[in-house]
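Archive entry. Fields below.
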Amino acid sequence: MAIMEYIDAIRLAMKEEMERDEDVFVLGEDVGVKGGVFTTTKGLQQQFGEMRVLDTPLAESVIAGAAIGAAMYGMKPIAEMQYSDFMFPATNQIISEAAKIRYRSNNDWSCPLVIRAPIGGGIFGGLYHSQCPESVFFGTPGLKIVAPFTAYDAKGLLKAAVRDPDPVLYFENKKCYKLVTGDVPETDYVVPIGKANVLREGDDITVISYSLPLHFALEAAEELAQEGISAHILDLRTLQPLDKEGILEAARKTGKVLIIHEDNKFGGIGGEVSAILAEEMLYELDAPIMRLCGPDVPAMPINPPGEKFFMLNKEKVKEAMRHLALY
Amino acid sequence: MKTITEVVMPQLAESLVSATIDKWLKAPGDQIDMYEPIAELITDKVTAELPSTLKGTLVKILAGAGETVAVGAPICLIEVEDSSAGGQGPSTEFHAGQPSAQPQSQVASSGDQSMRHRYSPAVQQLAAEHNITLSLVPGTGLGGRITRKDVLAYIAAGGKNEQAAPAVAKAQVQPSPVQPLNMDPQVAVRTTGLHLSETPRIPQVEVEGQAIPGRGETFIDVTPIRNTIAQKMRQSVTEIPHGWMMIEVDVTNLVVLRNKLKDEFMKREGVNLTYLAFFIKAVVNAIKEYPIINSVWAVDKIIVKRDINISLSVGTEDSVITPVIKNADQKNIAGLAREIDVLAKKTRDGKLKLDDVQGGTFTVNNTGSFGSILTQPIINYPQAAIITFESIVKRPVVINDMLAVRSMANVCLSLDHRILDGVICGRFLQRVKDTLENFDAETKLY
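PREDICTED_STRUCTURE:
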């Protein structure tokens, strides 16, 4: 076991996978010589050479398109979108090509591709460096989407994504890069895709979330425990496909569900989770399903008070959790 | 006055969560200007000077050289001259981060009980499974709501739970800013048969009723318009002591006049020249002579209205509406005929605007149009009187000891006996009668 930062865990996963499998390679803007704007790919080009760590033009559609082609030919590309905000030019490649190849070719072809993209705000990044694009890709069958919140999950999910036979979007949270540290085994392990993870047992309220807000929820739960409120916390881990069983099991523990995500509320993942609950367990609900999300405004503001207003934090999460517990 | 303010570690670059202080450029006691560098910082990305965001004196360094400090954490204290009066220094900001837990009231079972009878599906399911009478279960949720946990605790305690309220109950609840709707069905909302304050439901069935199988009855939902009519009628009949009079009018000459003009009028104006237009003209003339007819009872005084706005009863299949001819005294017969036509069409098409039905001071009802020869109208509250114009029928009439066949019509008046008496109303009706009988071939429409 080693204590390391979230970003180091991502780098370690790529390094290990590239060592394990010669077909794995990395491509993206500034991933080679510079080692990535966040240093996520630092040292990989020195270790694996220019042919396996490719600096690409500033054209996300090309990055995704080239990676899809390589994947169809049996390579295992890890394509980096510098910020998930820059991912939208590649949307057509991802949604209309990568997601559909297996289906379209009647199982003859597959696309074992990983696209890494940093999501989230609170880093003084403003409109174009803070977005959460989950909802854009979420409704696309054929894609898998994962979103780790700890260093352990960051490594394990990335390894699982590389080994998955289909395209996986890997949404890493850029605020977590250096904020989050934790134990990461140096052994070869994977965190299974499609399985939610219970982080905390409780019987008053169930909190369902993913990525950064889970840290707020865990801290808030700790403090609320002193008020006599016991929270059950579920990390979705995989956003597509959602772990329906896991969600229902967690919700049944308390009958009161709070869904939290930084992506804005309307059309977000919370809506789908709450629809599952409404369809499957209406009669076991003890309170209206509650969502705490980013506001429905076009983007994260650049001014600090605006950013603070937009971002979730422990206090906001705690307030919502308490509100639901008292209902 | 002076306040001590913290300087915090700024976010120097994206994705940075902390920075290390390389060295301090200022020592405690030093004067610091706005934007003057106070320390040098090292981060993964950059090495930078930290400019002061305040002007004042450095009081204390909280993080020494070589220490790594999280973004947002304080690194030093600066004493600032505060020009603004009062103790509202920036230091109050430190309290702002606390959750707003102070203005909270203890939720006691005797407090707000508005959600006491609002059962969630989970609670109902558990109660059904375990055969529990929910009224016996203590509720610890918001507004006295019985939570799922309350039921579980009740079951665990063998169904006779007295005070085993779960831990949540001891937590505090924030008072809601708005008084919530009372969801307690034991508090009756509807007190009488006719519900006056609530907007009635939109009916599920417009014309047809819902037949109840096995019973010879049909339920028809009350429409909003029907509800309004019911409300107004009841108010009028209960509040206003109605008096009633009738007078007989010989309209033979009017019939002749109208028959002479109606085709030409239709051609020129495109609307029907109705008897009603003549009748309203006669009524308006009479009101001008007896303005008290155009008034409202106001308990300790009578309000006489200057404007003569005639409410016109227009019936539709399932209701009656009274659109208003504003300033009817300023219109000639042709103008009235046109106005009547427009309002009647609007009413039947359901296109009346609020403005079209407001401000009436006296009501005219053309009951003759549906064949009646005698009606006892209910006053259009809060007006003082209502007049009807009945069917024109040919009758043998004695004139100068000779029998003649004349076109006769009755005119009926219901009056608010608090305001009006027989004498004044008799004169008023006589005036209407005179005007109607004096319409002849020479009468001008314009």
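CURATOR_NOTE: Chain B touches chain A at residues 11, 14-18, 44, 97, 99, 107, 120-125, 141-142, 145, 147-149, 166-168, 170-174 (CB under 8 Å).
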